[in-house]
Design goal:
- The chain has about 220 residues and is an alpha+beta fold.
- The protein is built from four helices and seven strands.
- Strand 2 (about 125-135) and strand 3 form a beta hairpin.
- GO terms for molecular function: guanyl-nucleotide exchange factor activity; small GTPase binding.
- InterPro entries: DOCK, DOCK_N, DOCK_N_sub1.
Length: about 220
């Protein structure tokens, strides 16, 4: 409430300076005065103060020179305008809250950080290590693969990334939090000959991708 009133007071101070400057055209001056009086009436309403009855130009009606019926009708019009303003403010606030909730729901709620230290698996050839998230109940992957190319020497093929094999899975949103189970799956694909024991140079093949191993663990 304090912030709302402070914001309205700042607006009134700014508008007052514009009115006193004497540089506004008559039509703009008239619209600005209506804006000022509407802001004052709105502020009095949210502070539970008395409603000031005004004429069409925003001037306060004199009860000594205005009939009771005219005062009553002016009071009804002013009350209706203030209530419409309150409903408009309430509707805008609800729309903002809905948009915030929708934005929050569409934003990933949490992420999974993975740091690959080593691949303890005797492969014998180059390999590709693929890591991803998997829903075992729906039998489908729910994230993209994090790929690391591993050499036959037991080190990453990109040696500059030896101690920097990190990935963050940010695909987990509110929908994924409702899943009963999520697994972290690691797949190893051997890249090389058709058969490891194939030593016949005439039949030797290279660059073939063959499934080699798989492992998984539950993360949710």
């Amino acid at each position: 409430m304090f912030r709302n009133v402070r914001r309205m007071i700042y607006d009134l101070i700014e508008w007052r300076s514009q009115i006193l400057s004497g540089t506004l055209p008559q039509d703009e001056l008239k619209e600005l005065k209506k804006k000022v009086t509407a802001k004052i009436d709105y502020g009095n309403r949210i502070l539970d103060l008395d409603l000031v009855v005004r004429d069409e130009d925003g001037n306060i009606l004199d009860p000594e020179q205005t009939s009771t019926i005219s005062l009553f009708r002016a009071h009804e019009i002013a009350s209706k305008q203030v209530e419409e303003r309150l409903q408009e403010e309430k509707s805008q606030k609800q729309n903002i809250d809905i948009n915030r909730q929708a934005k929050f729901a569409a934003t990933p709620s949490f992420a999974l950080f993975v740091n690959l230290k080593n691949v303890v698996c005797k492969i014998g050839e180059d390999a590709e290590v693929l890591m991803s998230l998997y829903d075992p109940l729906e039998s489908k992957f729910i994230s993209e693969n994090y790929l690391v190319r591993w050499s036959s020497c037991g080190l990453p093929k990109d040696i500059d990334r030896l101690h920097n094999l990190r990935a963050v899975f940010t695909d987990l949103g509110s929908k994924d939090l409702k899943r009963e189970k999520i697994s972290f799956v690691c797949q190893i694909v051997r890249v090389g000959r058709m058969e490891l024991r194939d030593n016949n140079t005439r039949k030797l093949t290279s660059g073939l991708r063959r499934p080699f191993g798989v492992a998984g663990t539950s993360v949710l």
